[in-house]
Amino acid sequence: MNRLFTISIAVFLLSTASLAQTKPMDYLHVPGPIVFDGKSYLLNWSAHPSANFYKQEYIQKGELADKYKTMILLDVITGQSNIKEVVSAKIAELKELKKNNPVINYEIMDNPKSGEYILDFLLTASTPDGKDISIVERNVYRYKLITDKSGQKGILLFGASTRGYNPEVDKFFAGLKSNRKNLISSVAQFAIPEISLK
Question: Is position 78 within any domain?
Fold first, then answer.
């Protein structure tokens, strides 16, 4: 359970989506485009790493998975209903990463009425010499309970990931200060597409 909806250093430095995949499988039956904040995102990569776990990533046409500016994510774990446990596992991972990278930060928000959680967190990767930040990545994850069209229950993660690359890292950080709440609001209000696993 602790490995669900987690991001490892390896995934951060080399997105799984950057691996060649000529025609990704639409496991969730949400082929795209997904329109988020007025921009269209196409299915670029997908995986079904275990019997009850599905991952799909969407990027804008013309962008590269390992050099994207914004990516949309849909993860689903079936047969699980404890959102708090899933979110706690992610926070535990971020705390572990923060021991070696003080720039890493996060904030958790919950909605008692809907039972949903939003996790806003920041990651960075350094240049080979360790002197500068090569990539800064800001993620906003929204966790919610779902029942798909076939009646399967589980937890869905809808996420928006944005990145800044050296030498524009400072510009990215400055943008976070001025419009940080915008992405949180967009993710929270987004009408997540209905999924079907069969």
Answer: yes
The structure tokens 């929270």 sit at: 188
Q: Are 54 and 46 in contact (CB under 8 A)?
A: yes
pLDDT digits (tens, 9 = 90+) for 3-33: 344 433 333 443 444 444 578 999 999 977 9
SS3 198: coil
For residue 158, what are the β-bridge partners?
A: 74, 142
Distance CA 79, CA 191 (A): 23
Domain extent for 132:
44-189
DSSP per position, 91-115: HHHHHHHHTT-TT-EEEEEEETTTT
The continuous run of DSSP H or E covering 184 comes out as helix 169-189
Nearest to 133 by CA among 146, 121, 141, 124: 124
pLDDT at 32: 78
Cβ–Cβ < 8 Å for 169, 179:
no
**118-134 burial: b if 16+ Cβ within 10 Å, else e:** bbbbbbbbeeeeeeebe
pTM, two decimals, is 0.88
In the chain, count H helices and then E strands. Answer: 3, 8
Q: How many domains does the chain have?
A: 1
The answer to whether residue 174 sits within a structural domain is yes
Please indicate, yes or no, if residue 77 is contained in any of the structural domains.
yes
Q: What is the 3-state secondary structure (H, E, C) of 9-53?
A: HHHHHCCHHHCCCCCCCCCCCCCCCEEECCEEEEEEEEEEEECCE
Look at residue 68 and tell me if it is in a domain: yes
